[in-house]
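STRUCTURE:
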C-alpha cells in the first residue's frame, strides 16, 4: 500500500539531506534534471503505445484532459479572484518588454513531441520496450533525488517560507481550489474521487505527475495528468501579462509549481521584481506538496 509513497518521498528526502554548494556540480544537476524530464516523458509515450484498445483510449485521454483542465483551472481562477478581492496586491510597476511567449510555447510543445516520439517507437513493439515501465520507475527515483538536492541548494528555509505570507497564502488557495476542481471533474467523468484528486494534485509538475499516476492508475490517467499540467503551463504563459493588470495573485497562482522556475521570468517582467520572493515560496510549497499528495492519493 505504501510502496508508491516510499518511491516518491524517500529519494526526495535523501536528496534534500545532501548539502551542495559547488556551483559546477549544481549546474550539472540542473542539466541532468532537464534530460531526465525528456527521458521520463519518452518512456511514458512508450507505455502509452502498449495500451489495449488504443484508439478508444486516446479519445478517453482527450475527454479526461479537457474536463479536468477546465475544472481545475476554473476553480483556481475563481478562488484567486476572491483572494485578490479580499487582499488586493497593489503595485505601480509598469510591464517590461517580455520574453518571446511564442518561444516559450514552442518549448512547452516540444514536450508533447517527446511523448509522441516515444509513442511511435512503442508501436514497433520491440521486445526490450516492454521494460519501459521499470525503466521509468528508476528514472523517477533519480529525478526525485536530484530535485531534493536542487531544493536544498536553493537556500529556501522554513523560516523564509513562513515569513512570506503572500506566497504561502496563494499556494494554499491554489492547492485547495485545485483539489476541489479535481473532485468536480471526477464527478462529471464518473471517475473515483481519489483519481480526480490525484489528477489535481500535481500543480503543473508534468514530468512527475505523468509517471507517478501512470504507475498507479495506468497510462490513460498518467497521460491525462501530463497533458493537464502542460495546459496549465501554456495557459499561464499566454495569460500572465493580461492577468497581471487585474491582480498579481491570479497571475502567480495560475503558474502553479512552475512559478519558481519556468514562468518566473515572465512573472517578474509583468508584475515587478518584488513578486520574486512570493513566486519562489509559492512554487517551493507546491513543489513539496505535489509529490506528497500524489503519492498519498496513489497508494
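SEQUENCE:
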Amino acid at each position: 500500500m505504501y510502496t508508491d509513497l516510499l518511491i516518491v518521498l524517500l529519494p526526495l528526502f535523501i536528496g534534500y539531506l545532501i548539502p551542495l554548494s559547488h556551483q559546477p556540480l549544481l549546474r550539472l544537476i540542473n542539466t541532468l534534471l532537464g534530460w531526465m524530464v525528456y527521458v521520463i516523458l519518452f518512456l511514458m509515450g512508450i507505455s502509452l503505445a502498449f495500451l489495449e484498445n488504443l484508439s478508444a483510449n486516446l479519445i478517453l485521454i482527450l475527454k479526461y484532459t479537457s474536463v479536468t483542465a477546465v475544472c481545475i483551472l476554473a476553480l483556481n481562477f475563481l478562488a484567486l479572484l476572491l483572494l485578490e478581492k479580499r487582499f488586493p496586491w497593489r503595485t505601480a510597476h509598469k510591464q517590461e518588454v517580455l520574453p518571446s511567449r511564442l518561444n516559450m510555447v514552442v518549448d512547452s510543445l516540444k514536450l508533447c513531441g517527446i511523448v509522441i516520439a516515444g509513442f511511435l517507437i512503442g508501436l514497433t513493439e520491440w521486445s526490450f520496450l516492454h521494460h519501459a515501465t521499470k525503466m521509468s520507475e528508476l528514472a523517477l527515483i533519480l529525478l526525485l533525488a536530484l530535485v531534493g538536492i536542487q531544493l536544498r541548494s536553493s537556500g529556501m528555509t522554513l523560516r523564509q517560507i513562513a515569513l512570506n505570507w503572500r506566497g504561502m497564502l496563494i499556494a494554499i488557495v491554489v492547492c485547495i481550489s485545485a483539489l476541489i476542481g479535481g473532485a468536480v471533474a471526477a464527478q462529471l467523468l464518473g471517475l473515483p474521487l481519489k483519481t480526480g484528486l490525484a489528477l489535481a494534485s500535481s500543480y503543473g509538475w508534468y514530468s512527475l505527475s505523468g509517471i507517478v499516476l501512470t504507475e498507479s492508475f495506468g497510462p490513460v490517467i498518467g497521460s491525462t495528468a501530463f497533458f493537464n499540467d502542460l495546459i496549465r503551463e501554456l495557459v499561464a504563459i499566454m495569460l500572465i501579462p493580461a492577468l497581471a493588470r487585474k491582480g498579481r495573485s491570479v497571475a502567480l497562482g495560475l503558474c502553479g509549481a512552475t512559478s519558481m522556475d519556468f514562468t518566473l521570468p515572465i512573472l517578474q517582467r509583468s508584475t515587478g521584481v518584488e513578486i520574486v520572493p512570493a513566486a519562489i515560496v509559492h512554487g517551493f510549497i507546491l513543489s513539496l506538496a505535489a509529490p506528497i499528495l500524489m503519492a498519498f492519493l496513489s497508494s
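REMARK: The chain has a mean pLDDT of 81.
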